[in-house]
Amino acid sequence: MNEPIFEANDLSRSFTVGSSPFRDLANHFLHDRQPTVLRAVDNVSITLAEGETLGVVGESGCGKSTLARLIAGILPVSSGERRFRGEAYESLLARKRDALKIQMVFQDPLSSLNPRLRVGEIVGEAAVLHGVVPRAKVKDYVVEILARVGLPADSVGRYPHQFSGGQRQRVGIARALAVKPQMLICDEAVAALDVSVQAQIINLLMDIKRDSGLAMIFISHDLGVIRHLCDRVAVMYLGRVVELAKTSELFASPTHPYTRMLLEGMPKISMQRRKFMPIQGEIPSPLNPPAGCHFHPRCPIATDHCREIRPELREIKPGHMHACLNIEAR
Amino acid sequence: MSKAFFQVDDLNTWFFTRKGTIKSVRDISFDVSRGEVLGIVGESGSGKSVTGMSIMGQIDEPGRIVSGSISLNGEELTKLDFEEMRRYRGNRIAMVFQNPLMTLNPLMRVRDQMYEAIGAHEDVPRNAMHKRCIEALRAVGIPSPEERLNAYPHEMSGGMRQRVVIAIALLLGPDLIIADEPTTALDVTIQAQIIYQIRRQIDERGLGMIWITHDLSTLSELADRIMVMYAGAMMEIGTTEEIIGGARHPYTRKLLDSVPSRNVPGEKLKQIPGNMPSLMALGEGCPFASRCERVTEICREPVPATQLSDTHRIWCLHPFEN
């Protein structure tokens, strides 16, 4: 096993919901109610090896995007530690030049790219500012990066709105690559794209991974995309990782009841009309998650102690971890 | 099929903008039978949503239905004036959109929105309305419907809201429901629940449904027939088996091949090179020609339909062999 490039230990992030100075003041005097706290990420520990792609999959509200922002270092943690090549984030992020080693690609390139800048500036700006490339050579450098993501050289002088969705996502990827990152975090980077364009972007990411050995964290709700692109997968449910395994292993023999439900619900191209089974239950509100195992109200094998005890993530087979009290290794 | 109650023939919906004419829908023809789900699949700009809006009579300036016919139970809808069409909308044809928050009024309780929908078309006493709303909510699998009637949309989860929208669509017992990406914004486990309930309603009530989506996987599991659109035109239509198992059009094949689950994990996905052509600058020929690997000179000429079986039709001069 390679030395991990990234390590997170007991990472948590909470948000106070509906807090405002006025409400805080009112609560202070009226001893009214405690502010509602949302535990978006709840004691998550993961590692990422050099050159590895780790997928994080889960449904809306499971905290996967918050986790992405924590790993990218653009959101402070509530508790827990993050390490990049052994160094704690706090000291790493203080050095701006080194903070660039971690880059992020967002879902919606239209809202993550400055609409008033030309592509040449968007892609080249940070690289020049932080001395990745001298200003005199930036033009050639940008053209080279654009070629790498499959954009023509004349894109340099155009604005983001002049591109199609897929091309814009290429600009977003070029922007991230321009500062020579060592870790790339993609948050739903292909979710908004059409199938044929999505395939183009996935192939591009695979090329980048193969050519540069870039370590990647790939956040998605789409199991098909995750399966295709990732070496290992973490499944999240209401802020917690419930299962973590090699991709092939997770898809072939999922152990956690939630993962199984997720895989069953995954639409597949099939010749037969599916017998859609009514899966019981809604996703509970993350504001008020069930006690014990968060999944117990929907779980077919829940027992009494699932309602009380929080299951820890534990290894049940080499490299295969899950957080379930009732299922042992098979 | 003879039991089709809904028919679209040679529909053309164009938008006349200052920059030029956008031919969003060109010569579309299909029908829907009772108890049938027709899936319309295509990428953004394929004209699938404009087809749905045309049926609902909701094409606004600068667009209009240029030619073609849309008929429900033998009555021609394109000839109806606004008031007559209003009586059809919601009553005989209902529509479900992708985002339930845009469809539901955030300031009204679910009950009032449902009452309003019934009241717009029928004169029913309140307690009868109430009973009908409860039934409709129960039919789409909403637990404790009595309580839900008093809730506001923001008090419900996304899946629950979309169920309410579907319940409203079912309220007046329409003949046809048009659903435009109804489960795209939902999580997979919730999507599976909703599709299950919709399919049951269609089978039980003998409704017809047009399910518009970009997601071939969901369609392959739900639809009886599938119609593939590209750049405003039909490429291929057939039963789900014919399209998923035996697609003959190069575009349909490429679309199927670019779905990750049809590829070996870790290997490069089969992708379609290039981009969709501008809808303003379309020639006479096949719109897919510029991206097609089987293209020849004759593809620049208008492409006639070829009937491959009773149900399978294709617009291609160089189809794949079966």
TrEMBL record, chain A:
<dbReference type="Pfam" id="PF00005">
    <property type="entry name" value="ABC_tran"/>
</dbReference>
<keyword id="KW-0813">Transport</keyword>
<keyword id="KW-0067">ATP-binding</keyword>
<dbReference type="GO" id="GO:0005524">
    <property type="term" value="F:ATP binding"/>
</dbReference>
<dbReference type="InterPro" id="IPR050319">
    <property type="entry name" value="ABC_transp_ATP-bind"/>
</dbReference>
<dbReference type="InterPro" id="IPR013563">
    <property type="entry name" value="Oligopep_ABC_C"/>
</dbReference>
<dbReference type="InterPro" id="IPR027417">
    <property type="entry name" value="P-loop_NTPase"/>
</dbReference>
<dbReference type="GO" id="GO:0005886">
    <property type="term" value="C:plasma membrane"/>
</dbReference>
<comment type="similarity">
    <text>Belongs to the ABC transporter superfamily.</text>
</comment>
<keyword id="KW-0547">Nucleotide-binding</keyword>
<dbReference type="GO" id="GO:0055085">
    <property type="term" value="P:transmembrane transport"/>
</dbReference>
<feature type="domain" description="ABC transporter">
    <location>
        <begin position="20"/>
        <end position="263"/>
    </location>
</feature>
<dbReference type="GO" id="GO:0016887">
    <property type="term" value="F:ATP hydrolysis activity"/>
</dbReference>
<dbReference type="GO" id="GO:0015833">
    <property type="term" value="P:peptide transport"/>
</dbReference>
<dbReference type="InterPro" id="IPR003593">
    <property type="entry name" value="AAA+_ATPase"/>
</dbReference>
<dbReference type="Pfam" id="PF08352">
    <property type="entry name" value="oligo_HPY"/>
</dbReference>
<dbReference type="InterPro" id="IPR017871">
    <property type="entry name" value="ABC_transporter-like_CS"/>
</dbReference>
<protein>
    <submittedName>
        <fullName>Peptide/nickel transport system ATP-binding protein</fullName>
    </submittedName>
</protein>
<dbReference type="InterPro" id="IPR003439">
    <property type="entry name" value="ABC_transporter-like_ATP-bd"/>
</dbReference>
UniProtKB/TrEMBL annotation, chain B:
<dbReference type="GO" id="GO:0005886">
    <property type="term" value="C:plasma membrane"/>
</dbReference>
<comment type="similarity">
    <text>Belongs to the ABC transporter superfamily.</text>
</comment>
<dbReference type="GO" id="GO:0005524">
    <property type="term" value="F:ATP binding"/>
</dbReference>
<dbReference type="InterPro" id="IPR003593">
    <property type="entry name" value="AAA+_ATPase"/>
</dbReference>
<keyword id="KW-0547">Nucleotide-binding</keyword>
<keyword id="KW-0813">Transport</keyword>
<dbReference type="InterPro" id="IPR003439">
    <property type="entry name" value="ABC_transporter-like_ATP-bd"/>
</dbReference>
<dbReference type="GO" id="GO:0055085">
    <property type="term" value="P:transmembrane transport"/>
</dbReference>
<keyword id="KW-0472">Membrane</keyword>
<keyword id="KW-1003">Cell membrane</keyword>
<dbReference type="Pfam" id="PF08352">
    <property type="entry name" value="oligo_HPY"/>
</dbReference>
<dbReference type="InterPro" id="IPR027417">
    <property type="entry name" value="P-loop_NTPase"/>
</dbReference>
<keyword id="KW-0067">ATP-binding</keyword>
<dbReference type="GO" id="GO:0015833">
    <property type="term" value="P:peptide transport"/>
</dbReference>
<dbReference type="InterPro" id="IPR050388">
    <property type="entry name" value="ABC_Ni/Peptide_Import"/>
</dbReference>
<dbReference type="InterPro" id="IPR013563">
    <property type="entry name" value="Oligopep_ABC_C"/>
</dbReference>
<protein>
    <submittedName>
        <fullName>Peptide/nickel transport system ATP-binding protein</fullName>
    </submittedName>
</protein>
<dbReference type="GO" id="GO:0016887">
    <property type="term" value="F:ATP hydrolysis activity"/>
</dbReference>
<dbReference type="InterPro" id="IPR017871">
    <property type="entry name" value="ABC_transporter-like_CS"/>
</dbReference>
<feature type="domain" description="ABC transporter">
    <location>
        <begin position="6"/>
        <end position="256"/>
    </location>
</feature>
<dbReference type="Pfam" id="PF00005">
    <property type="entry name" value="ABC_tran"/>
</dbReference>
